[in-house]
Description:
- It is a single chain.
- By secondary structure, the protein is mainly α.
- The protein has helices spanning about 1-35, 40-55, 60-75, 80-105, 110-115, 120-140, 145-150, 155-180, 185-190.
- The chain has one domain (about 25-45, about 60-190).
Amino acid sequence: MIFSLFKLVWRFSASVSLNSLFAAFLKQLDRVLISSLLSLRQVGYYTTANTAYMAISLFATPFSSAAFPRFASLIADQNHEALAATYHKLAKSVSFVVAPVSSIMYFYSYDILLIWTRSSDVAINSAPTLSVLSIAAMFNLMMYIPYVLQLAAGITWIALWNTAISLVVLLPLMYYLIHRHGIAGAGVAWVFLI
């Protein structure tokens, strides 16, 4: 009984697990390259900007958490009209929430960092990177709902290939941009990840 259940889901589980491993490596790639190419002070500035921009995902995560069971239920019921309507409503909602937050971080990155860290040095050096990362976050988070729909439908190969290709493309691109533009270059590379 258990073996037959495992046989039904092993490909899905293996694909999602492999994608998670690739994504975990991809998310650490920028810090590894920055720490090997730049000073420890620059790593600190980048980490500060990175931590601030990760707060944007807090606005999209509840939507994706709610979307998966709903999508899976509608797919199982083969209710394609309700699935399309729910998908579009959630995608619009994420865009409606994430775009203003990302824009605020983009335009007011220095002020946000100054209020948060109370250090003008950190704010000056981290603000350009936070601005670029906030744009990358906006584009990336708008892809949450399509990704959840793919998972709910059992389509894992698109995300797996996307992450694998991103690893191959992003490594040299990020290396070049960090070498040429410093920590802001890592942020620019994330914009191209889409």
